[in-house]
Amino acid sequence: MSVFGRKPRDQRVRAKGLRAFVALVYGFLFAPIAVLVLFSFNDSKRNATWQGFTLKWYGALFGNQPVLDALWLTMKVALIATVIATVFGSLAAYALTRYKFRGSSMYNGSIYVPLVIPEIVFAVALLSGFNVAGIGLSMKTVIIAHVAFMLSFVIVVVKARMAGFDTRLEEAAMDLGANELQTFFYVTLPFMLPGILAGALLAFVLSFDDFVITFFNSGVGNTTLPLKVYSMVKFGVTPEINAISVFMLLISVVMLLASYKLQGGAPTVVTAKEPAKE
Amino acid sequence: MTKPAENGMAEASASAILGQNAGPLSRAIGRLRGHSFAVANLLMAPTMLWLLLFLALPLGVILVYSFGGRGTYGDVIYGFSFDNYSRAFSPLWLPVILRSFGFAAIATLLTLAMGYPLAYFIAVYGGRRKNIYLILVMVPFWTSYLIRTYSWIVILRSQGVVNTLLQWANIIDQPLDLLNTPFSVILGLTYGFLPFMTLPLYASLEKLDKSLIEAAWDLGASRIWALLTVTIPLSIPGIIAGTLLVFIPAVGDFVTPDLLGGPDTLMIGNVIQQQFLAARDWAYGSALSFSLMAILLLGIFFYVRKVGTENLA
Amino acid sequence: MKKMDKELRVMALDGLAGPMTRRGFIKRAGAAGLLVGASGFIAACGGGETTTTAAAGGGTQELAKEIYFYNWSDYIAEDTIPNFQEEFGVKVVYDNYSSNDTLLAKLQSGATGYDIIVPTDYMITTMLGLDILQEIDLDNVPNVANLYQRFREAPFDPGNKYSIPWQWGTTGIGYNSAKVTDWVDSWDMLWNEAYSGKITMMSEIRDVFAVALFRLGYSPNTRDAAQIEEAKQMLIEQKSLLKHYTSDTYIDELASEDAWISHGWSGDVFQAQLENEAVMYSVPNEGSLTWVDSMCIPKDAPSKHTAEVFMNYIHRPEVAAGISNYVYYASPNEAAEEFISSEILEDPQIYPPQETMDKLVFLEELGEDTELYNTAYQELRAS
Q1: Angle at C99 between CA C93 and CA C105, to 5 degrees
Q2: Cα–Cα nearest to A3, from C272, B120, B170, C122
Q3: What whole-number distance in Å separates Cα of residue B227 and Cα of residue B234?
């Protein structure tokens, strides 16, 4: 449903062009996924050539404890790191856009530093840092590392959202009797929410799929899924990994459908559509 | 149009009302609120502390390395010399740097071309299903990067999906050489970074007041004109954010050129990575990294300045 | 009984070598505590054969509860570790890596916790130079006698003081016998313009230069800058013929026939052959490299003794053979021959005949002269 009240004919036609293009973009996004799904049924140890149809990889998957453990660890790390990075990052983005204070430009600049560091440098630097400080590697160090590079992404996204936030909304709310916290929770935060969600989604993917930084900062036995997959590169990434990816896809699709149904299809986000009339 | 928080009127009315509606936490915040410096720093504190401990300090270690030299077996000999930096700026790397910037720039433009309509669609036409469309953009990336890239190889190779289809449709006779070329590298970069452009754009476009666009249409503006004069300017923060989040990591990417590239697609990320791994010359690798970082930070500074600081505060 | 307890404790504490770091102290304290508890248990079991080393000389010794084994991926048979765990009651935590370089970088930066790592030959020299490895107590690894003589006197570690070989192989050319009509027995084939765009070279610095050096008749371990320069020029000429540089995707590319001639490792090409029967392997006449991956113990390994026990177990003939039978590489264990399937033993791609073996050379770590190769490689890739 479009947000527009009326829908004159030419607007609907316009939307068709846009819709067609968007469908193509989604097609582009899912093209390799289609291949990935197909090859999860490949009767071969490798992903290279199609050798025939089989379901054995799905069967093997559920007996393959190391791969399942890796998936579980990856999910845990990604969820924890995403929560931390999103909360801290959103607060920071709020501070940077709402307040002009001495030092804000320095903070603003330093946000970009994690972005420009090449991954291997960051990975090695952090490991050396842990070593010098005598901190042993473990799941905790992986989470720390992930948060460190995720923060900037969250901040940049939420800042983009916050830019142009009309502070008069906050004033208006307080004029009407809300206190600080209420204003934040009922006015500001809902406004930030799409940005926070976008930032969190991005952050999650960054963590979930990270290899270099995780490799260098994980302790013994902390094998995440990317680590497992990359270590298989030499001898062939078996279609088991495709199967697990399909599994992940199914889970996310199911969760999406569930969340949609749970909301009763109602809008999940309250946006400040109507600015306070002056 | 962000106003600083020194708004006397809000303070006055807030404190007048506080007595009635405030709990102890609120009152505390209220007292602080007048001191925006304190509040801002408090909010920034967790992030800054984290970055200081787990970024700045480790980088300091690397900085020390960059002035050192390479030991016999690849360990770092501490010293103080600018040798590594002068080597880093050797003309040997110029084509590599230009290529990296070039590939990244093209990928950024492509992601913008694809991501903007996508974000616009989700924000404006998404309606109740907005979040679902958004998450759908990310879902492909909840699979393994390596497998996705292997899948692209299956699609692009000489007997892959694309070539087979084109030959079957009699559009070409011989298979096209799509893989291990600049084309495949740019494709890989574009694909991998599309969400990094789409999500910030969405965040920015979503707050767009649709009635403004409607008003423009009512006043007789064509869709294109409304797009150019209303929508795009209002989404500039999103565009800036998106371009930064795509361009910067793309420049330093090494996996994509590694897997999808050819002998002539070497990017600066590969070079740096080699120094830390195969060549075991960490001092040189560190110097190269800092040089690259300095160039990028400088670029960001001018870019953000020029394109619209007032939107980024 | 009491006397034996005391002996056990003393021997175990001796065996826990390694630097006295805070973590090392805690580990030692923990291990000692474990011993005190366990020795009572052993006394109760009347000796407990299942948790002591079988073939070690000089009495019994306690084993750790877990060891941490860091190996190449998919480089072990399915039952090797489960059998060890069952027989010795020791849990093996198994992690994987896929390149020597990342292994080294990680260890160099200070990552610790592994008892056994499996680097390739020249990397061992580097690691020794960086003081990352510790000496192995061969009294605990009597099965080392099962190895072929040449692995007992390998140039990078004569006497197996620091390394016990795991598997070995060769480097050569993988090619598609259906598409490549010429005879493939020389490195020249990688420069053959008829196959332009279908040729791949590895992206390992030393391996790439070794090919050109062999072709020019020089040693792959040369320190002569002029020779290296000549090799570099030859490699630059080759660039336009290449599909790309890769150390792993060539396996898939040979299988899918996107590459017809690839510079590669023996076992890898064999993997491709399993997918595509037309793929063959050949060791060129000018000579080539042989390599061996070996088990080593890092300096700060938590459970050195148990690691040695594991190494000894690996070189029981049946166990070593089991690994080869599964991964299709050659075993350095001579006694294993009787248990290795004839399909593998008689395959010249895996066990080359003597005249080929004579042409095979190990890569050597060149210390400072590595810089010559590094620079030349950078110039090659950037040109």
Answers
A1: 85
A2: B120
A3: 10
Confidence (pTM):
0.82
Residue A250 lies in a domain: yes
Q: Pull the structure tokens for residue A23.
A: 């469908």
Q: Identify the burial level of A1 via C-beta atoms within 10 angstroms of its C-beta, where 0-12 means exposed, 13-18 middle and 19 or more buried.
A: exposed
Domain ranges in chain C are 1-47, 169-289+352-382
The token pair that represents C350 in the structure block: 């895996």
CB contact under 8 A, B199 and A204: no
Summarize pLDDT for C153-188 with one digit per residue, the tens: 888 899 999 999 999 999 999 999 999 988 888 999
Does the beta-carbon distance from A171 to B9 stay under 8 Å?
A: yes
Retrieve residue C206's tokens. Answer: 């030393």
User: Does A177 map to a domain?
Assistant: yes
- CATH architecture classification, C169-289+352-382: 3-Layer(aba) Sandwich (3.40)
Beta bridge partners of C280: C175
Domain spanning B81-311: CATH superfamily: MetI-like (1.10.3720.10)
Please give the helix or strand (H or E) that residue B266 lies within, else none: none
The pLDDT of residue C245 is 92
A218 touches chain B (CB under 8 A): no
Residue among A4, A28, A29, A169 with most chain B CBs within 10 A, to mutate: A29
List residues of chain C with CB under 8 Å from any CB of chain A.
21-23, 68, 70, 72-75, 93-98, 102, 105-106, 109-114, 248, 251-253, 255-256, 268, 271, 274-276, 327
Q: What's the total number of domains in chain A? A: 1
Nearest-Cα distance to chain C for A162, in Å, is: 40
- Using CB atoms within 10 A of its CB, is residue A49 exposed (0-12), middle (13-18) or buried (19+)? middle
Positive or negative torsion for Cα B204, B206, B211, B215: positive
Contact state of B117 with A179 under an 8 Å Cβ cutoff? no
Distance from CA of B74 to the nearest CA of C (A): 8
* Nearest CB neighbour to B180, from listed C243, C367, C379: C243
Quote the minimal CA–CA distance from B153 to chain C in Å.
10
User: Between A and B, how many CB-CB pairs are < 8 A?
Assistant: 378
Question: Coil, strand, or helix at residue A128?
Answer: helix
- Cα–Cα dist C291/C297, whole Å: 19
Bridge partners for C294 per DSSP: C165
Planar angle of CA B196, B200, B201, nearest 5 degrees: 105
CA end-to-end span of chain C: 73
- Report the complex ipTM: 0.82
Scanning every residue of chain A, which has its alpha carbon at the shortest distance from the alpha carbon of B242?
Answer: A157
Q: Taking CB atoms and an 8 Å limit, are B266 and C381 in contact across chains? A: yes
Residue pLDDT, tens place only, B163-183: 888 888 888 888 888 889 999
Are residues C249 and B70, on separate chains, in Cβ contact within 8 Å?
A: no
Ranges of chain A with pLDDT below 50: 1-2, 5-7, 9, 12-13, 265-278
Identify the segments of chain B with pLDDT beneath 70.
1-23, 25-36, 308-313
The closest alpha carbon to A53, from A236, A246, A239, belongs to A239
* Neighboring chain B residues of C104 at a CB cutoff of 8 Å: 74, 277, 280
Closest CA to C28 of C231, C304, C248: C304
Element (DSSP H or E) covering residue B196: helix B182-205
Q: Is residue A135 part of a domain?
A: yes
| Domain map (residue ranges) of chain B | 81-311
Domain containing A110 equals 65-262
* pLDDT tens sequence across A211-263: 989 998 988 888 898 888 888 776 677 888 888 888 888 888 887 777 777 76
Q: How far apart are CA C296 and CA A61, in angstroms?
A: 32
In a domain, A253, yes or no: yes
Question: Is B183 an 8 Å CB contact of chain C?
Answer: no
